[in-house]
Amino acid sequence: MAMQGRIALVTGAGSGMGRLACRMMAAQGARVAALDRDAEGLAATAAGAAAIFSQQVDVTDFAAVKAAVALVESTIGPVHRVYHCAAIMPLGKLLEQDNATVHRLMDINYGGLVNVAQAALPAMVARGAGDFISFSSLAGWLPMLGVGAYNASKFAVSAFTEVLYHENLASGVRFACVCPPPVATPLLRQGFDTGMPKTIADIEPIEPQVVLDAIEAGLAKGEFWIFPGKGARRAALMRRLLPGLCWKGIHEKEGY
Ligand SMILES: NC(=O)c1ccc[n+]([C@@H]2O[C@H](COP(=O)([O-])OP(=O)(O)OC[C@H]3O[C@@H](n4cnc5c(N)ncnc54)[C@H](O)[C@@H]3O)[C@@H](O)[C@H]2O)c1
């Protein structure tokens, strides 16, 4: 198996797709460093899995992320795969969301990626091997009413990851930017608690395993952009080719 004997580092490992990725890679014979700010979530992820080592880390704290990566490399070994999942998704109209929340979205969703990339990638690039998997979203392509601040953070994730990939094309490290539609994880609850627009609420979420399977398949084929599930790639393409039509549909759906 691809991850047998390898070392993986997963952020957002205390829930959802990060947790599933930890368990999947541990089951494949990897040793997994699980990072999250949520200690309880981490404990649940690591429960019963001797190959999952958890560290409570806030991805917005660059010194803490660097220390966590250094600890993994010195105690477990060189990181082969990074799965950067940590993110938040409070929603709301841009002029109604409080200022601190809009900034926090960018700090965690975009700033966290910057920190994890700068902490983990230089050694991977120097070794000339590994996989760097960055979680954007379909929301990193398609702006929607009531999703603006999350959209902005995920557009930033998409752009940062794309340039990172191109700047390191010859490095031997594989890069993937994952852009899922809604996925059945606790993240969606944050959206419903703060005001989920119909544009998202009316979509049946896909299962997290579908996303992880699409990542494995995409990596094997050397794909950078990964759009799991049916329709996500088409929606992103629609946005690029026919943005006015997309907005018309969104306004009709939301009724304003
Ligand atoms: N669930 C969806 O519908 C969906 C759709 C598209 C993209 N995504 C993206 O997929 C990724 C994984 O999402 P998920 O659905 O598994 O979410 P989730 O809410 O289940 O898990 C996210 C984890 O990130 C952690 N986290 C949040 N802020 C952190 C911080 N500052 N430092 C460390 N950890 C922090 C949380 O504690 C949580 O354990 C995210 O980047 C998300 O934006 C999710």
Structure, explained:
The chain has helices spanning 16-27, 39-46, 62-75, 99-127, 148-167, 187-194, 198-201, 208-221, 232-241, 243-254; strands spanning 7-11, 31-36, 52-56, 81-84, 130-135, 173-178, 225-226. By secondary structure, it is α/β, with parallel strands linked by helices. It has one domain: NAD(P)-binding Rossmann-like Domain (Rossmann fold, 3-Layer(aba) Sandwich). β1 (7-11), α1 (16-27) and β2 form a beta-alpha-beta unit. α3 runs parallel beside α4 and α9 (232-241) packs across α10 (243-254). The longest helix has 29 residues, at 99-127. The radius of gyration is 18 Å and the shape is globular. It starts with 6 loop residues before the first strand and ends with a helix. The mean pLDDT is 97. Bound molecules: nicotinamide-adenine-dinucleotide (NAD).
Topology (elements, then pairings):
Elements: E1 7-11, H1 16-27, E2 31-36, H2 39-46, E3 52-56, H3 62-75, E4 81-84, H4 99-127, E5 130-135, H5 148-167, E6 173-178, H6 187-194, H7 198-201, H8 208-221, E7 225-226, H9 232-241, H10 243-254
Parallel strand pairs: 1-2, 1-4, 2-3, 4-5, 5-6, 6-7
Please tag this protein with its features.
single chain, 256 residues, alpha/beta, Rossmann fold, seven-stranded parallel sheet, 10 helices, 7 strands, 51% helix, binds nicotinamide-adenine-dinucleotide
Quick summary:
This protein has 256 residues and is an alpha/beta fold.
Structural class: alpha/beta
Bound molecules: nicotinamide-adenine-dinucleotide
Rg to the nearest angstrom?
18 Å
Question: How would a textbook summarize the main sheet?
Answer: 7 strands, parallel
How far apart are the first and last residues' alpha carbons, in Å? Answer: 51 Å
Whole-number total of structural domains: 1
